[in-house]
Amino acid sequence: MSMSQYFAFEYRGLLDVGAGSISQIGCRFENMGARRIGIITDKGLVDAGVVDMVKDVLDAQRFPVVAGVYDKIEVDAKSSIINDCIRWCGEMGVEGLLAVGGGSVMDSVKAVKTMMAFGVRDVTEIMRGTAGSHIGLKVRPITFPHIAVPTTAGTGAESSPVAVVLIEESDLKGSIMHPDLPANVAVLDPTVTYSLPPRLTAETGCDALSHCMEAYFCMNSNSISDALALHAVRLIKKYLPIVIQNGRNVEARTQMLIASNMAMQAYSMAATSAPIHNCSHAIGAKLHISHGLANGVLMSTVMKVLAPFYAMRITDFAEAFGIKTEGVAPIDITYATVEALENFKKECGIPACFAQSLNAEDKEDLRIRIKADIAGFTFPLPMEAIDAIMALSFVQ
After folding, report:
1. CATH number of the domain at 14-193, please?
2. Are 266 and 210 in contact (CB under 8 A)?
3. Which residues pair with 17 in a beta bridge?
4. Alpha helices in 70-151 (DSSP H)
5. Tens digits of per-residue pLDDT, 84-129?
6. Is the dihedral of CA 304, 305, 306, 308 positive or negative?
7. How is the chain split into domains, by residue range?
């Protein structure tokens, strides 16, 4: 973008980073005046012992009191579960929310605290009836104490001003947007990510890389978002393969958490054109494919189909990804980057395409979903591009 163009860059929240940083949670809640908290998570993290790891620290510190653990969160931040979670919070009398989990947990908690601020018990009351974004929430501050402990290095949702929610009645994803949605404190502690298996490590890492791509190539990018996105690319390129091979590598786990957070900050403040997410939201909701896997499969395919769009800014991104660019035409750099992304996906165990095949009815439904998704409102994809992306992304 031209530096004569106006932009605003805002980040609300504190980052506690490093091995053992979960020990800071108690004093952070104390500083916010939260004496009784609820831990919001999923059953997988309870079974893996991650929740007990965090809870044991709080119990040893004796502040705050853990009122209980809500472990019913599922993939895609489902509206019915969010509504049940706020009921549980009321019954338990919680004064603070501790999110321990991946993107679905983070987004569910952000939706819950928004509902608390606006006095509603059904999340659809603060969202449009179909896919879309409710931005009118900015008129009221959200002050409920909220700390997030991400257990994946991918979504960066701990620091995002957006919560993506699956409205089950319509089977479409919509978004809540508010500047107070990021956690008051995000705790980036690599020790809570040690148990994440290689497949999920790869998928969530590719999600972070897709955030870098959307932020850097968007029409509203700026020098600050570029700096965050490009350095996150370098970190992901270097450390994701390492951490897939050795999940207990503390340096690699830490750097991936940092990269994920940087990527989301860039994405949140710059991404006005997000063709990868435009497609992944629709495909994920319809076929129940994880967000990280969807973005991982799509990122090289979308770049290939939209090569002229990416070629306009490709050089710095390609160099951050380790590709030589001197003396090479931008369109050729773009195709070289597509090839490098495909090789990187293969190295990380991400498939070249989805395992499912589509019939004519599926294709038409996905066309409608992609056109209706909020990520495409400011950068609508032509129908021929949608068809080309689907043709390359699914088993024929």
Report:
1. 3.40.50.1970
2. no
3. 188
4. 79-92, 103-118
5. 999 999 999 999 999 999 999 999 999 999 999 989 999 988 875 3
6. positive
7. 14-193, 198-393
